[in-house]
Every structure is written in structure tokens, then in C-alpha cells.
Amino acid sequence: MGSNTLSVLPDANRKLQPDKKRLLTSQADCYFAFIRAAIITALCTLFSASLYAAQWQSSVISSVLWSASSHNFKQQNYQFTVEPEFILRFDNNAKLTALGRLRSIGLDALSPEGVTDKAYSPFSKPLFIGNSSELELREFYVEFPSDNFYFTLGKQQVVWGKADGLKVLDIVNPQSYREFILEDFDDSRIPQWLANIESNFRGWDTQFLWIPDQSYHILATDDALYTPTSPLMLPQSQAGVSSVEVKPFKRPARTLMDSDVGLRLSRFWRGWDLTLNYLYQYDNFALLYQRRSLTSHGLHVEIEPQYRRTHVLGGSFSNAFDHWVLRGELAYFSNRYFLAEGPSTSNGLAKGEEISYVIGLDWAGLENTLISGQLFQSVVLNRQSATIRDKTDSTVSLLVNHTLLNDTIELRFVCLANTNIGDGLVRLRASYEWQDNLKTWISNDTYYGSREGIFGQFDNNDRLTLGIEMGFE
Amino acid sequence: MKQTHLIIVLISIFALPVLAQNLTDSNVNGLPTGEEIAAHINSRDEGKAVSRKLKIEMRDRSGKIRQRETMSYRKYFAKEKRTVIFYLAPKNIKDTAFLTYDYNDPDLADDQWLYLPALRKVRRISASDRGDYFLGTDMTYEDIKLETRVSTADFNFQTIGTCNAKGKPGLKIEGIPKTQEIARELGYSKTQSCVDNEIWMVRTSQFWDIKDNLLKTVTINDIEKIQGIWTQKNIEVENHKTGHSTGLTFSEVDYRSSVADGIFNTNAMKRGL
User: Fold this and answer.
1) Domain spans of chain B?
2) Cβ-contact A101, A82 below 8 angstroms
3) In 3-state terms, chain A is what percent helix, strand and coil (to 5)?
4) Domain B31-271, what architecture?
5) Tally of CB atoms within 10 A around A396
6) CB–CB of B19/B27 below 8 Å?
7) CB A162 within 8 A of CB A316
8) Burial (0-12, 13-18, 19+ Cβ within 10 Å), A13
9) With an 8 Å Cβ cutoff, are B60 and A408 in contact?
10) Contact criterion met (CB < 8 Å) for B67 and A319
11) pLDDT string in tens for chain A (473-residue length)
12) Measured distance CA(B178)–CA(A197) in Å, rounded
């Protein structure tokens, strides 16, 4: 994404007017006071309490993957993961949770390092060991109730929304696309250091989020298995371009002023689960600003990945009617940047607004079976110029889940299909629980459709997976 | 005259089953009616709120045993009953939580939610799924919700005699679903229960599936008075169709400590214990 000028960008380094400066300073003071209070409260809560219980649990997950395309079928990868979890409980209801992950991967094209690691904040970045392993503190947070408040402070995941497999409001934490969307969201979500404060106000459950940790979506880098190539995601090479230079990521650097903040109000009203959500965040996808210049060798293109803020305003709902559950979520994004069509636009991007929504219908009329369909649509509003993507982009999904033998066997079919491009992904999975803490599974992921599509771009990366998971307590 | 005889005969034909039922129901040697027994069961003191640990043991036909440990809370908000169950172990199901709001008004469907830690999302569940088996056990969602009570909104109860459960004399009642739709929803065409009429608790129950085959037997092996309230400590459920069985053992039962209202909502399900 990109162009010759940066005229649409506000100058991050411009001089602030004195009164605005004063305002920001007072806002920063408020932030500092708030953080101080929260940290002091957390420390007082922890140190004034006695430890009365400690729990340790761990999971070991191992999987082998085979890839298949129209040309070959070969072993792609093996993966070994250890996830230890520690919980300390104190006698004043405070709880400290630590969750780690050590992951070793036996294929360079999926190596942990083969990602846009500059998108991690320095505080959240995993430790890469060689080019095949990573060690990460996934979550580390303290929880404690205090009067009408419930505090969760530390590195954690926050999940909003009611959609399955498609994200509209589940955007608080960024995500790793190292394996595109094949990893479970619980594993691919990137936990962040944040303050999560919940309370109840006049019948509404409120959740306030303050997220100083600036991590963004992680994408697979060049030559990795799931490196994006679709023109919907990356600028394509053009005739006459002699060289392309990708500049370092330009990251927001101000800890306080570049923080994300969020607010969610939720309540149960006449059978409806309702939420109202607001998030002021940096869009988790880097915008690929392009700058073109003519050199003696031809056209030179500089790509400078940057992050831009957006307001997100949305809500969600769900209710049950007989055998049916209706659910949905909607979000409006005030500032979005899309890859522009044609070389005429200055920086390769077209600014606009976006509305995304999901409507889902679950049916559970058959015993131990769930059938769920979803329609996801994203609509671009007020585009400044034509975009590569269509104004309205639609994806439909179907999930069929069936359990047998008292939930020891689970069969799952998932299909995601983009109706604009005609590409999609079909996922099949069967799992068997041998014992309380021993489960095996076999799964198949098949992409289809045009290489220009979000799913079709990985048409050569169909895969078969065998996995085993053991738990220890 | 002939016409009068015909009317009498017709009335006799149509009224006979009703008369027979009434005879079976209310006056099997002067026993209380099924509805009276059901009312006694449902008016038994359960405490305003309770917290307890529940250990679930699931055994399959081949002898394989799976175990779950949960913590559950129940509380009455006026006549509305709210129940939440948190799974504590094993690791692969830990943090799963189930919440139900059971309304006193029979015209109002229950509201139910399930928190799935793998998704980190609370999923709304249709109350019409109440005949589905609850997380691999031999209890349905409806069984879990009712606990020791019986549903007079779904069944017509009649007394069919006396019974003996583990040496305790009792009254035997039969429940027939009020409609075919309810029968299909619950998965039961008939139930028969032996009720201890000293403490008005069900000691054993049998359930027949909608094809009228014996489906499962529920036996309450251990009943104890805790803090003044008769409490079931162990329940065994045997599924005759699958050969699978489930044992439920309650411990640390506490009716006196307060249970916070805030634990019965979807945010508390996500936070877990």
C-alpha cells in the first residue's frame, strides 16, 4: 500500500500549540494518576494477602503436518508445544496467573522467526531461540475484586463479539497470521499488557480497557508458507518499477498518548444479550504507504509500513428462540485505508470508512449437533478513490459440529466462502478423547478458488494434520 | 329408552379411561395424587442459595473412566432460580462454565449460556436443547437444571403405587409428558420415580425414551441433612442404551455462606473461579 506524498497523514512530529500541549499534559497526568492508583492498589492487594493455594498445570501438544497441492504431497512440518500455567491464589480473593509457551517447529517455512516481528511491542515479543523455537510469556496478570470493581491487570487476552471464526469486534488484541487463520484464535491472538477494569453501573456491566502495549498483527514474511500474496493484501509489482525498498516499520512510540482505550457496556435485557463497544485503537494491520521516485534505472518504490488510528463503534446481540439462536455483531470504523486501484493515487492507499457486520444463526434441533451459518459483510463508505477490494465484500460460513459417545468423539466441518472472489476454505476435523488428559485429532484444511482471493492465495497449501495433546496437573 | 342406553354406553366408553386414571392416581389405597407428591417435592426447602463441589465420574461400556471436578452455585432471586457450574479439572475442560436462569413462569423459556475457554466466548444455548446430554454425562441439560425437583410444567404426574428404594418405603409416581413436542424435546416418553414421602425426595427414577424403551435409571445413594436441609450427596445414572454411566458426588455443601449475585452473569463465567 503506498504513494508519492504523505499529505493525508497528520504530522506526528508537528509542534503542538501551547493550549493543546497543556491539555495533553493534563490528560497524561490523569493517565499517570490512574496507572499509579491501579498499580499501588494491585501491589497492596497482593502484598497484604497471604498465599493460600498454588496450582500448576501444563499441556504438551505435538502435531505433524503434511501439505498437499495439485503437484505434490509431502511432510510439511512437525510442531511441539509446551504450555505451562501457574496460578497463585491469595486469601483476599486475588489471583495471579502466568501462562507460558515454548514452541519448536521443524520447518523453516513456518519458523517462528518468519514473521513481521517488528509488529511486536518490545514488551510482548517472544524470545526466538535459533530459527526453530520460540519462548513466550503468553499471559501474566493479577485479578482482584475491590468494592464494585474487578481489576485484571497485566498481559492478557480480551475477547469481544459473538461471531465464530470471523472477526468484527474481536479486535482488541492483534493476531498472528503465521499460519493464516488455521491456528486456534486462542493461540494466534497476541496478548497485550493492559488494564482491564470491570464494574456495574445502573444495570450495565462496564468494562474499561487501557492498552499501552502497542503490538500489531503479525504476518508471515517472505518465503514463509503463509506469506500473503493476494493483491487484496499486498501491492503488486507494476510495469516500469525497477526496484522496491521496504522501509522499517514506523511504530507509534509514545507509551501513553499512543495507548488504545476501549469501553464495553453489556447487559441482559428481556432475553437479549446486548453489548455496546467502543475502541480507540491503531489499526492492527500496517498500512503500506508507497513513495515513488524516478531513478536512472527506472521507477523506484519505497514502502513504509505505518499504523493509523481509528475509532471503532459497535455492538453485539444474541437471543434464543426455540431451537434457534440468533446472534450478531456490527462495527463502524471511522478511518480505514485500503489498497488503491491504479497508479494514479498518491500513496497507493484510499482512505474511507468501513462498516462490518456478522449475522449468525445456530440450530440445535438434532441431538448433540450444532449447525451454524453466518454472513459476514464489510462495506467501504466514502472512499476517496477506487480500491482494489470491492465496495462490499461478503463471506459466508457454515459450521456443523457433532459429538458422539458422550462427547469423546467430536466431528467438525467448517466452510468459509468469499462470494466476491469465489474462493474459500474447507476444514474437517475429528478428535477423540482417550482419557481425561489425552486427546488426538486429525484435520484437513483445503483452500480453493482464485489466487487473488484471501483464501485462494494459499491454494497450494492444503494440509493434513495429525495431533496429540496431553495435559499434566 | 334405547337412546338413553346408547348415551350411557358411549359415556362409559369415553369416561372409562379417565375414571380408571383417577382411581389409579388418587385413590390407590388413599395415597396422595401424583400432582400432590410433585408439589411436595418442589416445595421442599432447598435453601436460598448453595455452593458445593461436584465430582463427576463418567464410565463407558469398556470400563474407561473420565473425571471432572466442578464448583457449582445456585441462588433464588424471588422465584427465579439461577445456577452456574464452573469446571475446575481436568485441564482440557477447565474453565468451561454453564449458566442457567430458570423462570418460575412456565411460559417463559429458560435462558442458558455456555462459556467455552478454547473460544474465550460465552455462547448462548437454546433452552430447547434441554434434552441434549450435558458435557458428556448421562444427565441432560434439563436434569442438571431441575436437580432434585420435577417439572410439573412438562409432565402430568400420577401415583401408581408404593415402592421400596434401598429399604426406604416410598410412593411411586409416573410422569407422562404433556405433549408430544415436550416428549421429543426432553427425549423421554415416561418417567417413574420412587419418592421418599418422609423427606419428599426422589430416591430412584427410571426414564423411557420416545420409542418407549427403558433409557436410564437414576439412583440417589446418599442423602444427608446438611445445615437443616436434606441434601443428595451421591447420584448414579445408568444409561441402558449405551452402557455408559455417570456418578455425581457432592461435597463441601454450604447453604449458609452468602453467594454473590454477580457470579450469575456471563462476565463472571469468563473470569472463572
Assistant:
1) 1-29, 31-271
2) yes
3) 10, 55, 35
4) Clam (2.50)
5) 16
6) no
7) yes
8) exposed
9) yes
10) no
11) 333 322 222 333 333 344 544 544 555 555 556 556 666 666 666 666 677 788 887 778 877 777 665 556 666 678 899 999 999 998 888 999 999 999 988 766 666 666 777 788 888 889 988 878 899 999 999 999 988 899 999 999 999 999 998 899 999 999 999 889 999 999 999 999 999 999 998 889 999 999 999 999 998 887 788 889 999 988 887 777 888 888 888 889 888 899 999 999 999 999 999 999 999 999 999 998 888 888 888 888 888 999 999 999 999 999 999 889 999 999 999 999 999 987 656 788 999 999 999 999 999 988 889 999 999 999 999 998 899 999 999 999 999 999 999 999 999 999 999 999 999 999 999 999 999 889 999 999 999 999 999 999 999 888 888 999 998 87
12) 48
Q: A59 vs B112: CB contact, 8 Å cut-off?
A: no
Q: State whether residue A289 is helix, strand or coil.
A: strand
Ordered domains of chain A (ranges, CATH): 18-472 (2.40.160.100)
Q: Which residue has cell 433464588?
A: B76
Task: Dig out the grid coordinates for B185 from the structure.
Answer: 424435546
The amino acid at residue A171 is I
Which of B64, B67, B124 lies at the smallest CB-CB distance from A320?
A: B124
| Min Cα–Cα distance to chain A from B59, Å | 10
Q: Complex ipTM, two decimals?
A: 0.86
CA distance A471 to chain B (A): 6
* Cell matching residue A412: 467438525
Query: Which chain B residues are within 8 Å of A207, Cβ to Cβ?
Result: 267
- Does residue A283 contact residue A309 with C-beta atoms inside 8 Å? yes
